[in-house]
């Protein structure tokens, strides 16, 4: 322990689906996601639109606090003061009160004038901002009167309508009182805490946008080292699910249009969150003398700005310096850190920049390290984000567990590059036992402000409890069984109603507890992957059931993920084994974790489209046969199988004509031969017509029929340039005689 180390001695929080640090940690370990549709009680549907609507919010999804209430009577707060004060102040006060309760007798040994409060917050909260609309009534009244006059409404009628509108307009906003000004000021969040607990060591708010609460940590740590405080209560609070921020993020294209993915090749943005968290900090030597067991030790911290870099776009050089500062203060090399709790907002630019900054700080020869971000669980809580990251990291250090990365299915290349020694883990793993564990927590805020905190384990560790195995999945299946189509439609609509306001994690819980699809020969199912899918898919299923009859064929909407039909006594199941253009993965994902199985060597990432044909062909056969054997273990028995291209080999093995390993060996030899001898790439064109017409379209070009896939589906093959110069031309939209549509096929493998 060096003189400037800081001990974390208590913590508490209120985040989506997590009213304690223990719940937050469990949700991170189990990769639970707290995102839901924003209910109309928070924002009416009229606030949402498309990315092109300048005044509207592009995504209706957020991670929200649900069921939380502040007990003003227990805190002896008058109704007037409560209504005139933004909820950020009450939430922060509540969470700090829980932290203070955990300090037991420690606070009694420290003079109250030596206890300080530092709060990370940006611009107060959404409720005070909303209440300012009441104060803008004169402008609204003038605009309304002008519009009515332009429509020819007489003066007396205008006056009556404006007066009636004023009453309606103002009724939702608290009337200004002597508490209104203080109730909306960000600095009073800390001041109110000091007032309630009689702390005299200084109370103020720091605003570094998304870095605010981590800046509160670094500011508090600095105050302790300088001897300005003996206990620092540091944290953040953010309640800002309102148009001011969300329209701004929409115009910056920062909100995820579909799913929030973090450090993923398909990352497109974040979904917002809200909440509050606080830590109690002491000098490590003081905590030791007081007999307080630290949860973790803060060994170093660094704060930088990006200088001339972008105001809203992070720069890697600035964050690299913050990491280097923190590690230098701790006396470590950045390469010695075991895992990082990243800023990880899920934006393509931000994620790549952050990973590059960490890799640059670590340099060559670093020992392996892992990274994840709690934002994938609770959304981007902005001013309260850094403190949530701290709590997750402290829990990881205390339990000696490396947490998994949520919502990272196809990691960015830097996470699969062995030279970076930086990667993700898909499930919790034990931390090294032969040394102290080191971690880094990062924040990167609008305006170019960077903060990084270096932490280590406190020595003694809390053994990680045995947990049930968790296999997170990004798709949920909602299945129904009913005695009639009408009955199924009723069940689907009722389920849609019950799930309308639930988070992704709560939808999973509901399905686990619901006891299965129920009886009946009419069957339906929907596949949903996010909070925006559930209601639409269930409504679509109900609409199909409304018009279905027992004579109807099975109705399948693969794009919408909707299935409806009638159970047969002896259903025929046919397997289709894919060809060599199928995706190649280094492991079997969920099935591999559940049933075990080997990894496929030679791939640079879990999903690698650039795999050579020599690697791809045996990998595809192996993963196809693994999937078939898993289905058999689940007692899903197929009666026949069809194979396409290399899938024919898998089909032969499934039928017993080849052993599984024989099939993989055959595929490996086939792939090796093709890689060795097929050095000149060929071209293939899918023509939506019969073979004779396809050859007529080809004219005198050296093209041959490679496959007859149907009466009006033919594949022509030949030299790549020749195959695209046929009369049907390149591209899916090109047309030849009789409406024949042509599409170039990938021949990469």
TrEMBL record:
Residues 718-749 are annotated as: Disordered. Transmembrane segments: none annotated. The keyword Phosphoprotein applies. Residues 726-740 have a biased composition (Low complexity). SUPFAM superfamilies: FabD/lysophospholipase-like (SSF52151), Thiolase-like (SSF53901). Keywords: Phosphopantetheine, Phosphoprotein. One of its GO terms (biological process) is fatty acid biosynthetic process. Residues 3-457 form the Ketosynthase family 3 (KS3) domain. GO terms for molecular function: fatty acid synthase activity. PANTHER family: FATTY ACID SYNTHASE (PTHR43775), SI:DKEY-61P9.11 (PTHR43775:SF37). This is Ketosynthase family 3 (KS3) domain-containing protein. It comes from Rathayibacter iranicus.
